[in-house]
Structure formats: structure tokens, C-alpha cells
């Protein structure tokens, strides 16, 4: 028998258009990875590919910037530092200059308390993204960016209010921070921002939910009553068209589900505001879709909604990964 010869095809022999297309595909962040984001940076492959050449870096950066995850304060600080570097590059007309604002489409800000950050750099990027996610705890950061944009327009003697690009707003965190939220919605810049939102995704929880989760008794006994989040009842969402309530479900007890890493289903209920009355009831009844999101999701599988005994604790799900993989897109 003749020995099997191994075929080799140098990557450099490919047409430049095909080679760049392959690199662009390889640079897509691995948000659906089985590993946690703490153990493996989903942007690691893309960042490595950026080192190939200046041309490849320019082609790969839009893939990295499409969805920006800032779960902790250190991530926000690093992102602002990158924006500061780009500002310096732009002033020098440097070959590495790149306009982040044009390419960031989705941005997640996790649960952290903001500190002294250069909002003049962060605000234009954050407020240019069509879809953003904020936590009640970092509301000051969003408010600061909105205020900066508002004051900048006033300082430039522009008569009309600033135009905010975000149309989809995902809200996470504990609803107990009602005083902070109340101050935000009563501010001029906060009310103007909320009036521009057309779709809301609420993944909030109460102090009672936290207590039940810590005691591992956050299980459902049957049919679920889906309630409109309290924070939405007094929020001036004047142009809101739809809002969604993602509800996680698992047939296993909470402890088994957490230890085994079993896939969890997410029932994504999307309500049309036009079909609700002027004073919507707290309990919502409407058509709904069951969207299966996995702990390491490669796809979003549609299925028929079912009722049954399950765990629907909001705190049991990795919402960062679910959102990164396209929840609400």
C-alpha cells in the first residue's frame, strides 16, 4: 500500500479577498463557548488575529466592537483607556486610528458602582449603540453619559435635544433601588432618553427573590403569573412599542441544575404595548414564544410553550452570556 500523502495548501496562496473573509469569520467572538467568560476571554482569538497586520486589524476590529461586554468596573476602565488612546491616534492622524462609535452596536454594562471616568469619551460610544443593557447599580454611569451629551448640546447652542441612538434597553438588577431610578426618570436628560426607547427587556428581581435564591427555594409550583416589573409602572416610556420578560425554566431542582450545567430554557414573553390599556394590569396575559437559550448556546431553538413544575429563578441564569448570544436582538 502506498503511503498516504498529506496535502498542504499555504494560507498565503489564497486570494486576498478569500483570506480576509476567513480571518473575519475566525475573529468573531466565541460568546457561545462552553467555558465561562472568566476562564476564557471570548475576544481572545479576535485579539490575537489583530496582531497579524495593520490591514487585518482594521478588518477584524468591527467584529470585536459589534458587541461590547463590560461586566465589571475594570472592563469599563480598560475600554475608556482604549478610547483615550484612539483619541490620541486621531489627533496624530496615526495609522492605528479607528472610530469605535461607528461599529459598536450592542453594549452590556454589568453590576458595579461607577467611579471617576472620562464620560466625554464613553458617552458618544454608549449613546450611539442601538441596543444597551444597564444594571440598576450602575445607573449613575448611564445618567452621567446622558447628562454629558445633553450639556454638550447646550454648550454648542443647539436648540433641539440630543438624539439618542439606543432603541432597545435591557434593565437588570435589584428593583429595590427605586429612589435612584425615581431621580433618573425625573431628570430632563433621563426622561428624554427613555422617551426614545421602543423596546425594553426586563431581567430584574426583588429582595424577596434574592432571599429565596440564597435559601435555594426559588422553584415554581405550577402555572406562572407573569407580572409587569414594578420599575416600569412609573417610567415615562412614551414611545415604547414592545417589552419582553425572559423567564428561565429548568425541570431539575436548582442545585442539580447548577452543578450539572444542564441547559436551561428561557421563555421570552414579548408584549405589544398597543394591545394593553392605558393603565396596564400588573398581571399580563398575551401570546408568547418559548426561546431555548443554552448555557453554551449555539442556536436559539423555538418550541411550543409548556406549563409545568420548573425553576424560574432569574438569578440562576447567566444573562450576560444569553444577551451576548443575541437575547432580545
Brief summary of the model shown:
The chain has 329 residues and is α/β, with parallel strands linked by helices.
Structure description:
- The chain contains 11 helices and 9 strands.
- It is α/β, with parallel strands linked by helices and 329 residues long.
- Strand 5 (199-205), helix 9 (207-214) and strand 6 (242-249) form a beta-alpha-beta unit.
- It starts with 15 loop residues before the first helix and ends in a 5-residue tail after the last helix.
- The model is unreliable at 250-262 and 277-311 (pLDDT under 50).
Write the layout of secondary structure elements.
Layout (H helix, E strand, L loop, with lengths): L15 H11 L17 H6 L4 H12 L1 E4 L2 H20 L13 E4 L9 H8 L4 E5 L3 H17 L12 E7 L3 H9 L1 H8 L3 E7 L1 H8 L27 E8 L4 H7 L4 E8 L16 E4 L8 E3 L15 H6 L5
Parallel strand pairs: 1-2, 2-3, 3-4, 4-5, 5-6
Antiparallel strand pairs: 6-7, 7-8, 8-9
Provide keyphrases for this structure.
9 strands; alpha/beta; 34% helix; 11 helices; nine-stranded mixed sheet; 329 residues
Morphology call: globular
Strand order of the largest sheet: 1-2-3-4-5-6-7-8-9
Measured as a percent range, the helix fraction is: 25-40%
Topology order in helix (H) and strand (E) letters: HHHEHEHEHEHHEHEHEEEH
Biggest β-sheet strands, sense, barrel: 9 strands, mixed
Give the low-pLDDT segments.
250-262, 277-311
Rg is 22 Å
Strand residue content: 15-25%
For the record, give the distance between the C-alpha atoms at the N and C termini, rounded to a whole number.
55 Å
Strand count: 9
Overall average pLDDT: 75
